[in-house]
Design a protein that fits this description.
The protein is an alpha+beta fold. It is built from nine helices and eleven strands. The chain is 45% helix and 22% strand.
């Protein structure tokens, strides 16, 4: 659970303006948001909320990373998304007053800004521009989860991994070598498999000359074949 709130840093207004949810808002609206923000810190592994908890608010990550995931009764975990600095999560349950549909925990020491549901709803009634930004956020989340369903339902594990590696490269301006920021267990959970299977898939892609792996560094040796690999395995 959250540790004691910290006082807001002097540059909080600038930080809020850099987040996708709040960027472009006029200064007076950012000031109102600053008044609502409650800073909370979580050490690595701490639970931010459990699936089924009341949706009392949403979060913006100031530093660190958070995984949002669902767990089965037998303990199997499916990571829905990894959120990083300036990302926001849990808006939908916070706004509709329902329960959190998944759990969230800190992957590393993390500081978040918490926005309580009712106070934020009151602000939305006064600020149409903020409402538009929120609708854009919902659209991004829907697209992300649609892609997740397609990936898990229509692709085998090797194609899921190839797709993940290419996505990492795109996020790094087409970098030839990408860095894995998740442990093998976490990456397996995100791709809907188990670590042993993931290890075999890494070995398969390496043997076929599609990638080279050295520690957490993965070199994409043949993008065209990786793309074709995805298409063939869809």
């Amino acid at each position: 659970m959250p540790r004691s709130p910290k006082s807001a840093p002097a540059n909080l207004l600038e930080f809020l303006n850099q987040t996708m949810l709040f960027q472009g808002l006029p200064p007076e609206q950012l000031v109102e948001l600053e008044k609502l923000a409650i800073a909370q810190t979580y050490p690595k592994g701490d639970i931010i909320f459990h699936q089924g908890d009341e949706g009392i608010g949403f979060f913006v990550i100031k530093t660190g990373r958070v995984k949002v995931y669902k767990s089965s009764r037998d303990g199997k975990e499916q990571i829905l998304h990894i959120f990083g600095e300036r990302d926001h999560f849990a808006e939908v349950p916070a706004l509709d007053g329902q329960y959190y549909p998944a759990s969230a925990s800190a992957l590393e020491p993390t500081e978040v800004l918490f926005f309580a549901r009712q106070r934020f709803l009151n602000l939305l009634e006064q600020q149409p521009a903020l409402t538009i930004n929120l609708l854009k956020s919902f659209a991004r989340h829907l697209r992300r989860f649609s892609n997740l369903v397609d990936n898990l339902a229509l692709r085998e594990v090797p194609a899921r991994l190839a797709n993940y590696l290419l996505s990492l490269s795109e996020q790094s301006d087409g970098a030839e070598t990408v860095t894995l920021t998740l442990t093998k267990g976490q990456l397996a959970a995100q791709l809907g498999t188990i670590p042993e299977t993931l290890s075999r898939v890494f070995a398969k892609l390496t043997a076929e000359g599609l990638i080279e792996v050295e520690g957490y560094q993965v070199k994409l040796c043949d993008r065209d074949r990786l793309q074709q690999f995805i298409a063939d395995k869809s």
